[in-house]
Design a protein that fits this description.
343 residues; 11 strands; single chain; three-stranded antiparallel beta sheet; Triger factor/SurA peptide-binding fold; 11 helices; 51% helix
Length: 343
């Protein structure tokens, strides 16, 4: 427990800076489904140097803090990370702590300062994150050698990193409505909508290599299912029935398949839904040995999305992209005139 509070508090300290939180995503590796369960424990830090930035030593404590920031779920897996991701997480964390140190040194070079009142408020907010005074004292002992001045320096460093990132990244990454509209107009194919059908389904699926008796049983279940489906009067009733009797994976979503374009619908289903009106429920449709029942919720003609409908997510996407570009540019610029050694 002693070490756990030390690590968590160190992560919270990094969380004082708000602008850097936007940058962590660029260091996060992409997980795959097989890596989600096999984890490997992270080594506990002992102060071993892992990098040197213009003579300043960064240790495995700094590295572990950043690994927990990149992959916070490690605390839910007994301090472990997916084996397939460990190398990428470690590499990303190392690059991030080097970047943070470069940003801090640049802020110092520019003679940036933190107002006393802001320092005091940040220290108060930091202390509030501990569950008890004992937890706070444990952190002070482990990470600050019991010195309030060391803690204040950590907070000051974090705030200066925050301030410089706001100047060089956050403030420059804003995307206006005009910029988003210009992108929208220049990339019409991205916002073109294919003709699609919003449907719900109830399926009856006989087992693979089903025997004649099993196929007969499936037919019986399908006949019963279509009678119940035809008796439903709306989206909710059909969805509740799908949750109860459907045998496909979409049953947990009330059978809702959302909008599907022509290329993704089996020909047998496509032939039926083309002749349906929204709100109608089909007869049994046989696809191979399986049976499905379709409720048509909407027919969406081919066309273009309206700018107003995509404006907010598009601006957010473009801002994330711009943020990553600015961060990468700043990182490259600072590394050009620095000596960074990985130990």
């Amino acid at each position: 427990m002693k070490r756990q509070y030390s690590i968590i508090a160190a992560v919270l300290l990094a969380g004082i800076a708000t602008a850097r939180a936007q940058l962590v995503a660029s260091h996060v590796p992409t997980a795959n489904s097989q890596s989600a369960f096999a984890t490997t424990p992270l080594q506990q830090p002992n102060g071993k140097p892992v990098a040197k930035v213009n003579g300043t030593i960064l240790t495995d404590r700094d590295l572990l803090r950043e690994m927990y920031t990149i992959f916070p779920y490690a605390r839910q897996h007994n301090g472990g990370v997916p084996k397939a991701m460990e190398t990428d997480i470690r590499r990303g964390a190392l690059k991030m702590i080097e970047f943070e140190e470069l940003v801090y040194q640049e802020a110092v070079r520019r003679k940036m300062t933190v107002a006393p009142a802001r320092m005091q408020q940040a220290e108060l907010e930091f202390r509030k994150q501990f569950q008890s005074p004992d937890d706070y004292q444990e952190f002070m002992k482990e990470e600050c050698h019991g010195s309030r001045q060391v803690l204040r320096e950590k907070i000051r460093r974090s705030l200066l990193i925050d301030d410089l990132l706001k100047i060089e990244v956050a403030n420059k990454s804003t995307v206006s409505v005009t910029e988003a509209k210009a992108y929208f107009d220049k990339n019409p194919d991205r916002f073109r909508i294919a003709e699609s059908w919003a449907i719900q389904t109830i399926s009856v699926l006989p087992p693979a290599n089903a025997s004649p008796e099993q196929l007969k049983e499936a037919q019986k279940r399908a006949d019963a299912a279509v009678k119940q489906a035809k008796a439903t009067k709306n989206y909710e009733e059909f969805g509740v029935l799908a949750e109860k009797i459907s045998e496909d994976d979409w049953r947990v979503m009330m059978g809702d398949r959302k909008a599907i374009d022509r290329s993704k619908l089996p020909p047998e289903v496509m032939k039926v839904v083309e002749g349906m009106k929204p709100g109608e429920t089909s007869d049994l449709i046989q696809v191979g040995q399986a049976y499905t029942i379709v409720r048509l919720n909407a027919h969406i003609p081919a066309g273009m999305q309206k700018f107003e409908a995509v404006k907010a997510p598009l601006r957010a996407e473009l801002q994330r992209r711009k943020t990553e570009q600015l961060r990468a540019g700043l990182d490259q610029q600072l590394r050009k005139k620095a000596r960074v050694e990985e130990l």
